[in-house]
Each structure stands twice: as C-alpha cells, then as structure tokens.
Design brief:
Strand order of the largest sheet: 13-12-11-19-14
CATH topology of the largest domain: L,D-transpeptidase catalytic domain-like
CATH superfamily of the largest domain: L,D-transpeptidase catalytic domain-like
Structural class: alpha+beta
Radius of gyration: 38 Å
Helix content: 10-25%
Distance between the termini: 86 Å
Strand content: 25-35%
Length: 404
C-alpha cells in the first residue's frame, strides 16, 4: 500500500511550508476554533483565509531501472542486429533515448518498457562502441514519472565480418575454384533483422550485403571440375585456408590493393563494391603443381583444365625446394637473380618469366642442357617455351604446390 500525507492548505499568510511544520496542523485547528472562525466576517487587521481542505500525494514506487541490454557491458555483438534496452516499467512517450559513441545513424522505437534501436546500416566490424543511457532528471523517464537514477555507459564491440561470407563472395566473383549455391529457406516465423541475409546476392544493396557479412546466408560449395586433390584437400569452408589466401591476393591485385594476404577493411569495402557491380575475376583461376620424382614435372591448370604439363628442375639436395603450397606474390618478365651457391661463390643470373612463390624460390626460365631432375638452388626451372606460355596465367595469388 502506498503511503499518503494529509496536507492542510492554508491561505496566503500561511503556505505549504507552515502547514507541514511540526504541530502546525493542530495549532491552526485550535486557532480556528478559538478566534471566531464560525463567523463569516473578518476582524479589522485580520487576513482572510480560504477554507481548509486536504489532498493526497502518492509516494513514488521503485525507481526506474535497466533490466537488460542486448549490447551489454563488455559484450561482442552482431553488428547487423538491432540493439534493445529493457526497463522495469513502460516509458513515457517523450522520454529521452540512449545515444552511441561514435555516433550511429538509425532510429529508436518504444514498445512498452523496451527501447529498440535499428541502425540505418550495420555497425562497423571489429570496432569498439559505447551506449550512453541518460539518467537523472533529464534522463530516461517512465510513464508514471519515475526516472533512471544515474546515467549508464556501456562499452561493447562488434564482431569481425564472417570468413564464410568472404568465401561466398569470392566464389560468386570467380576468385575461387568453387561454385557457391544459396540455400532456399522455407518461410517461418519472422526474425528481427536489419536486412534478410538471404537477399544478399550479387547486385544487392549495401545494407543487405553488410548484414550478410555478419550473418552469412546458408548455402553449399562445390568444386569446379578438373582440379587435383592436392588443391581440393586445402579447402576449409568458414576457416582461414590457403585457397582463400590465394583468392584474396588475386582480388587485391586486380583491384589495386596492397598484397597483405588478409581481408582488412579496404578489401571488404572493395569486395562489396565489386559484388554490387557484379565485377567478376577477369583473369580466371590458375593452379600449379611441381612434382619431385623421376622425371620432375610442373603441371598448370587454368579454369579447371590442364594448360600445360612440362619437365622441370627443382632444388639440389644442398638447397632443396621446400615442400608445401604457396601463393605467387611477386612477378617479373625479366630480372636478375643473385645470391650465393652452396660452396660460397656468388652468382648473378639473368632470368625470364619469373613468378616468386616462396621467399627466393620462383617458377622461371633458366637455360639447362636438360630438364626433369634436381639442378636449381630451390627454384622450379623450366625451358623457354613452357615458361613463356604459362607466365601470363601465373598471376598474383596463384597457388604453387611442391610435392614429392
């Protein structure tokens, strides 16, 4: 039960403060009985008083408080989702609303005791934000008049954008040797989301693409025909892998970006633009496989077909070619290679059709009397004709595997 105060309202000479003073109520009642209060006229020099009456002041209930916040203190959130703040009581229609730092464009909607913020476009990825909920007399206010006692400042971070979505877009733009097909989802109960992830195909609006970058639409990958298991075994959907690394480098190369092997903000921005404009890979997909054996060979695939298989030379036992898979990171039509032989002597050799893939190791032309067995200091050496033929296809990001 709410407490109540009984207040006697007096005329101008009295006032509320005097009426609430200790003993004032009783004293004034006694004065009224002993000074002719029954008369309807006033004495000379006496101030006229209004007839006394009482009113009830309802005492406040529990103070307004925050019950839950979807972007709570220290949380890492999906930047495509709305931010909700739930209070302990329904809010006034004109109550102030929270703000973000840095500022985020969007709209707040009130629904009873809940405030829901929908950004105009998703929050930036992997970034720190602060949600400021105003308090005090100018703060969030309940419909009953109660206010949030103190301001609340909640710091949170957004997730990084999805590796899986990166792969989906690169596959759609033909930078990966896979086909991605979006899964058709049956209609179900609606879910609050900035944009339906399923609408984010090539040519979709930026808001839909940004939402999908946080929450990729479901779908499946399948390999294009013709590639060997030495390549397909490297694929790890949704996780960092060498096939993805090569595709990112190829995209960076074609869009004039630094080759840093990873998808940072500049790569994502360019990728979303390319997806909106349907700008597909103009150079196709190439893969090279050097096999140590007898004889040693290099096989090059382009767009799923064998472009060439030719004899090759790998490194001698004192300076072997390292096994593994590596992306092409530097290319020259002609250059001078220099260094030291295993015996300490210096060399400086002119070479043509050069594609560096692992440190100082490259696929290139080098004149030898014969080919097909270890002769180099780690490079994969070819004859002039094959080296010249494959060089235009050995673009940045092309994966080169060396196996026994």
């Amino acid at each position: 039960m709410a407490l109540a105060l009984t207040v006697v309202t007096v005329g101008a000479a009295g006032g509320l403060a005097a009426a609430l003073a200790p003993g004032a109520v009783a004293a004034r009642a006694a004065t009224a009985r002993g000074t002719g209060a029954r008369s309807g006229h006033r004495r000379r020099g006496q101030t006229q008083r209004a007839p006394g009456h009482t009113r009830t002041l309802a005492a406040g209930g529990p103070p307004l408080r925050v019950v839950s916040v979807s972007a709570g203190r220290g949380a890492t959130v999906n930047g495509a989702d709305p931010v909700s703040v739930e209070f302990s009581a329904p809010l006034a229609a004109d109550s102030p609303v929270p703000t973000f730092r840095p500022s985020v464009r969007g709209t707040w909607a009130k629904d009873g005791a809940t405030l829901l913020f929908t950004p105009s476009a998703p929050f930036q990825p992997a970034r720190a934000y602060q949600l400021d909920i105003p308090g005090g007399q100018s703060g969030v206010r309940a419909a009953g008049g109660d206010v949030l006692a103190r301001r609340m400042d909640l710091k949170f971070r957004t997730q990084g954008w999805s590796t899986l979505r990166l792969e989906q877009l690169l596959a759609q733009l033909h930078y990966l040797p896979l086909i991605w097909s979006q899964q058709t989802i049956p209609l179900a109960a609606p879910t609050i989301r900035l944009q339906p992830a399923g609408s984010a195909g090539l040519g979709s609006g930026r808001a839909a693409q940004l939402a999908a970058a946080y929450d990729p639409p479901p779908g499946t990958f399948r390999w294009r025909r013709g590639y060997p298991s030495t390549l397909t075994s490297l694929w790890r959907p949704g996780r960092p892998n060498l096939v993805l690394t090569g595709a990112v480098m190829a995209f960076e190369s074609q869009h004039g970006l630094p080759l840093n092997h990873s998808a940072g903000p500049r790569v994502w921005s360019a990728l979303l633009r390319a997806a909106a404009r349907k700008q597909r890979n103009a150079k196709g997909y190439t893969y090279a496989l050097a096999r140590k054996g007898s004889p040693e060979t290099l096989t090059v695939w382009h767009n799923g077909s064998v472009l060439m298989k030719t004899l090759a030379n790998t490194g001698i036992p004192a300076s072997p070619t390292a096994d593994g898979t590596f992306p092409v990171y530097l290319r020259f039509q002609f250059t001078i290679m220099s260094g030291f032989n295993p015996d300490g002597s210096h060399y400086s050799d002119p070479v043509w059709w050069v594609s560096y893939f692992n440190g100082g190791d490259a696929v290139h032309y080098f004149p030898r009397a014969s080919y097909g067995f270890p002769q180099s200091l780690g490079c994969v050496e070819l004859q002039w004709g094959p080296a010249k033929r494959i060089w235009p296809y050995m673009n940045y990001g092309t994966l080169v595997s060396v196996v026994n």
